[in-house]
Amino acid sequence: MAHFYLCWELGAGLGHAGRLKSIALPLRARGHRVTFVLRDLVLTRRLLAGLGIDTLQAPVWLHRTAGMPPDQASLAEILLACGYLDADALAGLCDGWRALLRLGRPDLVIADYAPTAILAARSLGLPSAAVGPGFTIPPAGEALPPLRSWEQAPSARLRATEARLLASCNTVLAAHGASPMAYGADLLLGDHPLLCTWPELDHFARPGGGPWLGPNLPPPAGGAAQWPAGEGRRVFAYLRHGAPGTAEVLGALVRQGCRVLCYLADVAAGAPAPVDSPLVRYAAAPVSLPDALAQCELAVTHAGEATTAQALLAGRPLLMLPHAAESFLMARRVVQLGAGINAMEMARPRDWDGMVVALMDKPAYREAAAAFAARYKDFTAADQAQDLADRFEAMVT
């Protein structure tokens, strides 16, 4: 039996750990050994409780990188700010990953947004696979694409930052006698990139591409959906406390008489609610997304990849409040589908009530979401997890 390292290094939220959990379950059921190497061991503890899988702390960048532009124009700039600006600093991170890999001796490193795990595996001659949505699986064999497609980033800036990224990576690889990388994308793709999305939801809207494996969704978890009493239409909101637009959209939903089930992690932990109304119920713990989406008419989110995919699979239109380049690109894809509104692209002052009314009452949004759901009605996360397990086994035989 093989030993698989499932690694997560960059990115916030539990989505990465949830995806790795969905990968771990079929591999372990087939008798393989699995080890998690995770960015966060605390917030993931409840999610992974009871699995009996060894979990290690991933080496991560703990410092502030000064002098970086405020709006990151490419994945290269994101990585430069996470330890890749200086080859000596990157060597320290890579040494940590190399030590973990030498201790565990995995047959395959599986990376979910874990570029330094891929770098370390390459330096040791270990095979690596990368899983994730379009954002973390950029097009192969070409320069990293710009993230802010709504702006024109200077091409010289994009070339310079990718060259700086490659210089750091290749300096580290050369110190270990490993072959250099030709493109920044190599750092994210590893030896076996697996694009876990569909073309409609690909952040980079690449022509051709694939194979499209569908979203790598976490196993169902969370409590049953419990809605406020009354007759208003049901809306499920999965938001972040203090994020722009959170209080405004909840206020609009209340004014339109909607019954809102809202999960805000900070409110669940004791923070004050942004809107106090009997029409809004704040869940005390994470809510089962399949349960909530099956019962609501509209989903309000920050356009995270997994939540967006599940809402569309349920045929629900979305009102989206993206707050980062990744979620902004995802929101644009949903708008292009005709299945939602990106509130952050609307002119100020934003007409929150108008957006809610449009999504609830104009059939075009519901029809577009329903068409997407019909297109992928045969997709199941369980089948996709088994398909991934087949692929990983083939990589180590």
Automatic annotation (TrEMBL):
Cross-referenced Pfam families: EryCIII-like_C
Task: Please list the residue ranges annotated as the Erythromycin biosynthesis protein CIII-like C-terminal domain.
Answer: 285-374
Q: Tell me, what is one Gene Ontology molecular-function annotation carried by this entry?
A: glycosyltransferase activity
Q: Which InterPro entries match?
A: EryCIII-like_C
Q: Which UniProt keywords apply?
A: Transferase
Signal sequence: where? none
Q: What highest taxon heads this organism's lineage?
A: Bacteria
- Which SUPFAM superfamilies does UniProt cross-reference here? UDP-Glycosyltransferase/glycogen phosphorylase
Q: Which PANTHER family match?
A: GLYCOSYLTRANSFERASE (PTHR21015:SF22), UDP-N-ACETYLGLUCOSAMINE--N-ACETYLMURAMYL-(PENTAPEPTIDE) PYROPHOSPHORYL-UNDECAPRENOL N-ACETYLGLUCOSAMINE TRANSFERASE 1 (PTHR21015)
**What is the designated name of this protein?**
UDP:flavonoid glycosyltransferase YjiC, YdhE family
